[in-house]
């Protein structure tokens, strides 16, 4: 289970969940950089009221936009990869096929 899944599970059980932002870089450099120090800083921020943001839920408009963006980016990368593979295959194809497919645009391929 990832952190988002854990946060959803805890909220469903009635546990208050607080999101803690990344620690201040200057303060982090002074105290050192380790998981233990970061965990302690996060706990202190939650306990002293510095961190008061509730984690994002999956029902929000922002989550819908994020999902659409991920799908768009994935589809764009897949399209690019397929076009590159087609172009590579055309380079190694027999001369007759290269003559027909070579001049075609990406949309036509």
Compute the number of structural domains: 2
Catalogue the unreliable spans. Answer: none
Q: DSSP strand (E) fraction?
A: under 5%
| Cα gyration radius (Å) | 25 Å
Tell me, briefly, the overall form.
elongated
Instruction: Round the mean pLDDT to the nearest integer and report it.
Output: 83
Distance between the termini: 42 Å
- Helix run count: 5
What's the SSE blueprint?
Blueprint: H1 3-12, H2 25-31, H3 35-47, H4 61-92, H5 95-101
What does this protein structure show overall?
63% of the residues lie in helices and 0% in strands. It has two domains: 3-47, no CATH class; 61-101, no CATH class. It is elongated, with a radius of gyration of 25 Å. The longest helix is centred in the last third of the chain and has 32 residues, at 61-92. The chain has five helices and no strands.
Give the key terms.
0% strand; elongated; 2 domains; 109 residues; single chain
Brief characterization of the structure:
This protein is mainly α and 109 residues long. Helices cover 63% and strands 0% of the residues.
